[in-house]
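cron nightly-structures :: item 1 of 1
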Amino acid sequence: MEYLILLTQSIHCLAANRRPILSGPEFLNARLGETVTYTVSAVDPDGDPFSVWIEDHIPGDFNNKTLTYTWTPHDMEPFTLM
């Protein structure tokens, strides 16, 4: 007698943790002595808690609760905000 045995396996994959999505202006134009303010938006597609901040070497002020950046340029030293 021959028997055919079928084994069935199920693999359940949980979605990998996705990074938060941050959006805001791609470029920021500013004039010397004039205050620039803009707000970014951020959302985590998985609903996980996260924090947003700007490195200390960037001029201006960033409110990490409202995600608002404010800066008044007083010199022409360039910097990159990523």
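cron nightly-structures :: done
The mean pLDDT is 77.
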